[in-house]
Specification:
The chain has a 7-stranded parallel β-sheet. The chain has a 4-stranded antiparallel β-sheet with strand order 3-2-1-4. A hairpin with a 4-residue loop joins strand 2 and strand 3 (45-51). It has 2 domains: 3-124 and 361-368, 2-Layer Sandwich (Enolase-like, domain 1), CATH 3.30.390; 126-349, Alpha-Beta Barrel (TIM Barrel), CATH 3.20.20. It has 14 helices and 14 strands. Helix 1 (63-78) packs across helix 3, helix 6 runs parallel beside helix 7 (204-217) and helix 11 (279-292) packs parallel to helix 12. Helix content is 41%, strand content 21%. The two termini are 37 Å apart. By secondary structure, the chain is an alpha/beta fold. Bound molecules: [(2S)-5-oxo-2,5-dihydrofuran-2-yl]acetic acid (MUC) and magnesium ion.
């Protein structure tokens, strides 16, 4: 089965969030998805998505920059290429375009979707085989208001949709964040696992104070307390506290994963397809982590359904000690796939069917498309 890439198109879609989502570096009221459609000779189509958070406030690729990298550089490079597997296309992209892992992730997803459809196999099979089609999924409480977060958590627990929550802290002074966190643990902690994500907001000294207090409060996991470049502080914190640390921004690809583990880091890694350059690239990091005895977590850039499903196919092939956070579609007011993902009992179900196993609603695509 050889496919020939005939056309690659991309769109920016702006979809409002169900409520403000407040992180240490930005408050989101809308999410911008970069959607890619790859059309092969004969009409077979593969879809991909690259999504970041808060324009350029989370990382170095913006939605507009991702679209420009695809339209200006990657699409002309790939158009006309024949493929019957991923590796030559990934090598071609990496030889001509440095970085830009978000743009490459959308394209790698689209190659895999097209290939899976041609072979009539799900993405997870191309990536090694799903161990389970039910994956644990937490929810992030990040309205910016303690009482509202508690009410939201109580409702989701009562509905049985989630049994683990992540809190976004780091924007406020440490004492305020600790009060907020302690109140939520008091209200929900008996029934749910509560974790926090600091999104790099603390310096090393504040992180020592913060970790000690969070350990007392009964938090289960602390994500990226210090700046992404401060591997030494992250490593020391992971050795000093029994409260586990999750590296997120500090670990994008297999090279980062190797360096952190070799430096003595003892926490867990958050995998994200966008950080690594695609679902198959994220699995390379997972395998390095596995070799180093480092636990895994399936992370999100708050993607819509296409990016979330692509991630779930990859995560389904792994043992994930900390589960996943692939709730992105639920944070958005609307979806662009015909049949939304199913979330229940603290789990999300991996779609079956060839490729991603989803059908894109092209009317919705046109409706939300930025003009
Ligand atoms: C992050 O840094 O983890 C994931 C969940 C969420 O609420 O924000 C993202 C980003
Ligand atoms: Mg994070």
């Amino acid at each position: 089965m050889t496919l020939c890439i005939e056309r690659i198109e991309s769109w920016l879609l702006d979809i409002p969030t169900i409520r403000p989502h407040k992180l240490s570096m930005a408050t989101m009221g809308c999410q911008t998805l970069t959607i890619v459609r790859l059309t092969c000779a004969g009409g077979l189509v593969g879809w991909g998505e690259a999504t970041t958070i808060g324009g350029l406030s989370y990382g170095p690729e913006s939605p507009e920059g991702i679209k420009s990298a695809i339209d200006t550089y990657l699409a002309p490079l790939l158009t006309g290429q024949q493929f019957d597997g991923l590796t030559p296309l990934v090598n071609l992209m990496n030889a001509s375009v440095k970085g830009n892992t978000f743009a490459k992730s959308a394209l790698e997803t689209a190659f895999l979707d097209a290939q899976g459809k041609a072979l009539r196999q799900p993405l997870s099979t191309l990536l090694g085989g799903a161990q389970s089609r039910q994956l644990p999924v937490l929810w992030t409480l990040a309205s910016g208001d303690t009482e509202r977060d508690i009410a939201e958590g109580q409702r989701l627990l009562a509905e049985g949709r989630h049994n683990a929550f992540k809190l976004k802290i780091g924007a406020r002074p440490l004492a305020d964040d600790l009060r907020h966190t302690a109140a939520i643990v008091r209200a929900l902690g008996a029934d749910a696992s509560i974790r926090v994500d600091v999104n790099q907001a603390w310096d090393a000294a504040s992180a020592v104070r913060g970790m000690a207090a969070l350990q007392e409060i009964g938090i289960d996991l602390v994500e990226q307390p210090v700046a992404l470049w401060d591997r030494a502080a992250l490593t020391q914190l992971s050795q000093r506290f029994t409260l586990p640390i999750l590296a997120d921004e500090a670990v994008a690809d297999a090279h980062d994963g190797y360096a952190l583990a070799a430096g003595g880091f003892r926490g867990a890694y958050a995998l994200k397809i966008a950080k690594a350059g695609g679902p198959a690239q994220a699995l390379k990091l997972a395998h390095v982590a596995d070799a180093a005895g480092i636990a895994l977590y399936g992370g999100t850039m708050l993607e819509g359904s296409i990016g979330s499903v692509a991630s779930l196919h990859a995560w389904s092939t792994l043992k994930l000690a900390w589960g996943t956070e692939m709730f992105g579609p639920l944070l958005l007011k609307d979806d662009i796939i015909a049949e939304p993902l199913s979330f229940a009992d603290g789990q999300v179900t991996l779609p079956d069917g060839p490729g991603l196993g989803i059908e894109v609603d092209e009317d919705k695509l046109r409706f939300y498309q930025r003009t």
